[in-house]
Design brief:
By secondary structure, the protein is mainly alpha-helical. Helices cover about 50% and strands about 5% of the residues. It has two domains: about 15-195 and about 305-330, Rossmann fold (3-Layer(aba) Sandwich), CATH 3.40.50.620; about 215-300, Orthogonal Bundle (Tyrosyl-Transfer RNA Synthetase). The strands form two sheets. Strands 1-2-3 form a three-stranded parallel beta sheet. It is globular, with a radius of gyration of 22 Å. The protein binds tryptophanyl-5'AMP. Tryptophanyl-5'AMP binds near residues 56, 142, 156 and 159.
Length: about 350
């Protein structure tokens, strides 16, 4: 078996991640992934690629005009969050055709059985009479997104770990058969890799309608937060709470100061603080983080031309790197006429 490739010591590690432009950009996306992206952009210690994965968003029913609008909204949201296109490569997946090309090639080193074990496919296809082939092969496209840039670090939420493990397995299979072309990517989890929805029962998710939107009006955000489920066993104000099972405490850990988190723990477990008061405090912490993001979002909306330029530049750079990879992949697989004639 071929040894896994390492990034050369002098090269910066290459990071790639993606987000679907579907539904609303919620605090699960932000705390689970995008806030980490922005921290990496600020640190400038790595070569960063962030991708709006529109080709993934067509694997369930959608309206074309709506998808098109959402791509632009997502781009503006990401920039407002600190994913500054001057300091990283921000682009839209379908602007770089090599993603779908490599996905087809990788489909031919991926066993059916591996895809049928993917829990996200099982969840998303459940109850659908006509689940699409694209939904089934979705993780192959995700592997292509990562491998195309030979990324070694992939910052994601916990729900993407299984897909990433498949990408690693795909690298091993591909390199074994065709030569050492791809490095094995490693996941990078944030401190809040799994944010539960407002129902407190399932992961916060666009498809479950249990989200808190990052750029939602403050009143709407607060009304949703106020109604969020907490510890189900805390029926009366005088019952001590269990922070370990409470979603609001998870949010505190992600956005409140360490002192506030400690105080919250103490006051919750001794019933000195009620759930509504606890939510008011976490709302203040959210305000501290989100008010500047919302202001930046409004400013970005004033300059659609800048965003267009940034995505154009991002796609151009991404295409260049992607094509370098494909120039190795095609001849290694015996495809095309790029290699010298036999
Ligand atoms: P997507 O668009 O569903 O979510 C984007 C990112 O947000 C994270 N996330 C969460 N983290 C914590 N708690 C939650 N409730 C929560 N909900 C979402 C996700 O883990 C993800 O990191 N398949 C991917 C997109 C993708 C991708 C890639 C990611 C396509 N190609 C290549 C990395 C590398 C997805 O659907 O993410």
């Amino acid at each position: 078996m071929t040894a896994p490739l390492q990034a050369s010591p002098q090269a910066q590690p290459r990071v790639l991640s993606g987000i679907q432009p579907t539904g609303e950009f919620h605090i699960g996306n932000w705390l689970g992934a995008v806030r980490t992206w922005a921290q990496q952009v600020a640190a400038q210690a790595e070569d960063l690629f962030f991708c709006i994965v529109d080709a993934h968003a067509i694997t369930t029913e959608y309206i074309p005009a709506e998808l098109h609008r959402r791509i632009w909204t997502m781009a503006g949201d990401l920039v407002a969050c600190g994913v500054d296109p001057d300091r990283c490569t921000l682009f839209v997946q379908s602007d770089v055709r090599q993603h779908t090309e490599l996905a087809w090639y990788l489909a031919n080193v991926t066993p059916l059985g591996d895809l049928s074990r993917m829990t996200q496919f099982k969840e998303k296809s459940e109850g659908r009479e006509h689940a699409l082939v694209g939904l089934f092969t979705y993780p192959v496209l995700m592997s292509a997104d990562i491998l195309l840039y030979r990324a070694t670090v992939v910052p994601v939420g916990e729900d993407q770990l299984q897909h990433l493990e498949l990408a690693r397995e795909t690298v091993r299979r591909f390199n074994h058969r065709f030569g050492p072309i791809f490095p094995e990517p490693q996941p990078r989890l944030s401190q809040a890799p799994r944010i539960m929805g407002l129902d407190g029962q399932t992961k916060m998710s666009k498809s479950k309608g249990n989200t808190l939107g990052l750029f939602e009006e403050r009143d709407v955000f607060w009304n949703k937060l106020r109604g969020a489920f907490t510890d189900p066993q805390r029926l009366r104000r005088s019952d001590p709470g269990r922070p370990g099972v409470c979603n609001i405490f998870t949010m505190h850990k992600a956005v409140s100061t360490p002192d506030e988190v400690e105080l919250t723990y103490t006051e919750c477990t001794t019933a000195q603080r009620g759930c509504v008061d606890c939510k008011k405090i976490v709302m203040e912490s959210f305000d501290r983080e989100l008010v500047p993001l919302r202001a930046r979002r409004a400013e970005i909306a004033q300059h659609p031309d800048r965003l267009r330029q940034a995505l154009g530049d991002g796609a151009e750079k991404a295409r260049r790197i992607a094509e370098e990879t494909m120039r190795e992949v095609r001849p290694a697989m015996g495809l095309g006429t790029g290699a010298p004639a036999p």
